[in-house]
Amino acid sequence: MNTPRVLVLGSYNQDCVWRVERAPQAGETVRGREFSSAHGGKGFNQAVACARQGAATAFIAALGDDVAGAQAQRAAAAEGIAAHWQLHADVATGNACILVEDGGQNRIVVALGANERIGAGFLAARDAVFAGSRILLVQLENNLDATRAALERATQHGLLRILNPAPVHAQLDAALLAQVDLLIPNETECALLLGRVAGLELDPATLAQRPDAELHALLRRLSVASIIVTLGAQGCFVSHGEASPLADAAPYYRVAAEPARVVDTTGAGDAFCGALAAALLRLSTQPLRAAVVHANRCAALATEARGAAAAMPHLDAVLARFGGS
Predict the structure, then answer these.
(1) Residues 172, 176, 181, 183, Cα dihedral to 10°
(2) Distance between CA 50 and CA 280 in Å, rounded?
(3) SS3 101
(4) What is the rounded distance in angstroms from the CA atom of residue 228 to the CA atom of residue 12?
(5) Residue 190 lies in a domain
(6) Looking at the DSSP assignment, which residues form a beta bridge with residue 239?
């Protein structure tokens, strides 16, 4: 494999998926249609999405010294990902419980396990991996001190720093956001961050309907150079600050969602983030909009397949469906 160009620090979870007509109410038991287990975790999903879009990809994560951890190692190798695993004998590999309703909507509960045990020393020992990369992509399913340490090391080596703030950590603050070049929240995460950082109380459901100039002004309150808010069926909204290294000709704009035959939305956001990181390298001579359009297409295709990591599309499938290069 070539020297890794995208480095993902993140989580691996073994996903346990129940497919149901509808999610149960409190105290109610419903009959599941089907059960399956598969590879997941936001970090692993995004690393797979990145690798399948043709980018050389490195992945740093923690596992329990158990059966699920061994399966994770084999899965990463099969995807061609250069994985660096910190193994823990005293804690389990992460697990996720996912309920997928007939309409494609999902509800997820995660026991992060080993994902919350990555040590700063483990990251420091992999300084060469940071030095050999151009982009760092992180989420928030790890311990926050590891995320901070990774962002600091990425800053030292001049990497583009991307944060998908999912799930929003209780201790995430403006100081950590200041270390980020590109922030990619969904509507719920965006509203939570605006509440925490800017003291605003917003209904997430209203964000997509706000006028573009108003939404852009709200996002500038987060003081991150560039922000992409993913809006599900409404596509996404891009907002740049004046000093953004990714700035397009327009300071803000929308990109419409691509039509899709939705089966399962579980991995759509991860497909977007991983594909965007890969496209930023592959389309490096083009404006950010080109990478955003491509990531939108990947997210659409991901909703047409079941599962998380398994649903991440390959580059040739995206090009065959939508064209481009």
Answers:
(1) 0
(2) 11
(3) strand
(4) 24
(5) no
(6) 227, 252
pLDDT above 50 (res 1): no
In the prediction, which pLDDT does 140 show? 96
Note the pLDDT of residue 263: 86
Length of the chain: 325
d(CA 76, CA 61): 11
Write down the residue that tokens 């083009």 correspond to. 286
- Tell me, what CATH number does 21's domain have? 3.40.1190.20
For residue 133, which amino acid is it? S
Q: Which residues pair with 99 in a beta bridge?
A: 18, 107
Instruction: Quickly count helices (H) and strands (E) in the chain.
Output: 11, 13
Say if residue 2's pLDDT is above 60.
no
- Give the torsion sign (CA, 153, 155, 157, 163): positive
Task: pLDDT band for 12, please (50, 70, 90 cuts).
Answer: very high
DSSP assignment letter at 263: S
Indicate whether 108 belongs to any domain.
yes
| CA Rg value for the chain | 19
Indicate whether 177 pLDDT > 90. Answer: yes
In a domain, 227, yes or no: no
Q: Provide the number of structural domains found in the chain.
A: 1
* E strands, the chain, in order: 6-9, 13-20, 34-40, 57-64, 82-88, 94-101, 106-111, 135-138, 160-163, 182-183, 226-230, 236-240, 252-255
Cα–Cα distance, 123 to 82 (Å, whole number): 15
pTM, rounded to two decimals: 0.92
270 is catalytic: yes
The pair of structure tokens assigned to 83 is: 């994985």
Per residue in 272-322, pLDDT tens?
Answer: 999 999 999 999 999 999 999 999 999 999 999 988 899 999 999 999 999
**Structure tokens given for 46:** 């995004």
Let me know if residue 279 belongs to a domain.
yes
Confidence bin at 103 (pLDDT 50/70/90): confident
> Which residues are registered as beta bridge partners of 230?
186, 236
- Three-state DSSP class for 186? strand
**Range of the structural domain that residue 16 is part of:** 6-181+258-322
